[in-house]
Write a structure and sequence with these properties.
This protein is of the alpha/beta class. It has nine helices and nine strands.
Length: 271
């Protein structure tokens, strides 16, 4: 491991041995070299340990822990162990393109006031690119825009300065926020006044498959509403009539989205 790497790449994993090699290779192939990799195994019972035991890579730290039930736990473990000034997140079934860290760190270097950078991604399913995932845009009041318009970031596409991550106490490990703990953290970072930068260039791929946590739509939507409730009651504008109206509208929209996705899922199962 490097003594003082600039970037700490945190990869949480749970029973993803099938995908893990590609994720690690995509980091190893980065043109930017000043980084460490912290792979936190969240209680895997597959071949993950055997796979890692065969890898000889001085930048890689492998940590095994009991399953915490969400990605928040291993990500927080990685943050606590991070030696870098910047923390980059990569899910173990996603990949980065080789210029990812180089282009993101160039933005931080040229814009020292920026606290967080998120880039665009492609979505891959069954070996094919099926969609383009666009991040952003940045807004003057990022907190309210994220709250009322939904998540504009992808975990695997986001790099954050470690200092504000520590100030925010990392991800909330409460089970009420499983599947949406990243969105909840982005909200808190925005509320702290962090400056967001969105790089509208695809620098990686979100890989869609039947093991994705995001497939648990019912739980995801319920926990999204839990996030909205948490932030509504902690916001100083909660008694503002306009804010109340927008909150109710946003809250009900999650029910509608869940209904549409449930009906689509039922249709797919019938076919």
């Amino acid at each position: 491991m490097e003594a003082n790497p600039k970037v700490s790449v945190i990869i949480p994993t749970h029973n993803h041995a099938l995908f893990l090699s590609k994720a690690l290779d995509s980091v190893r192939n980065q043109t930017y070299e000043d980084y460490e990799v912290i792979l936190v195994d969240n209680g895997s019972t597959d071949q993950t340990k055997e796979l890692i035991s065969k890898i000889k890579w001085e930048k890689l730290l492998y940590v095994y822990q009991d399953d915490t039930g969400s990605a928040a736990g291993p990500r927080n473990t990685g943050i606590r162990l991070a030696k870098g000034d910047y923390v980059a997140f990569l899910d173990s079934d996603d990949i980065w393109y080789k210029e990812k860290l180089n282009k993101v760190m160039d933005i931080f270097l040229k814009n020292p006031e920026i606290d967080l950078v998120c880039n665009d991604e492609y979505c891959r399913k069954d070996g094919k690119i099926v969609s383009y995932l666009k991040c952003g845009p940045s807004e003057p009041d990022m907190y309210e825009k994220l709250f009322f318009n939904g998540n504009r970031l992808s975990g695997s596409a986001t790099v954050v300065k470690k200092a504000p991550l520590l100030k925010a106490s990392g991800f909330d490990e409460n089970k009420k926020y499983v599947h949406v703990e990243d969105y909840e953290l982005w909200l808190r970072l925005a509320k702290l006044g962090c400056k967001f930068y969105f790089l509208n260039e695809p620098l990686g791929e979100f890989v869609l498959h039947d093991r994705n946590l995001s497939y648990e739509i019912t739980k995801q939507m319920q926990n999204l509403r839990n996030v909205l409730i948490k932030h509504y009651f902690s916001y100083e504008k909660k008694m503002d009539p306009n804010y109340i109206y927008l909150f109710i509208k946003t809250y009900l929209k999650t029910y509608y989205s869940q209904l549409i996705r449930y009906k689509q899922g039922a249709k797919d199962r019938r076919n």
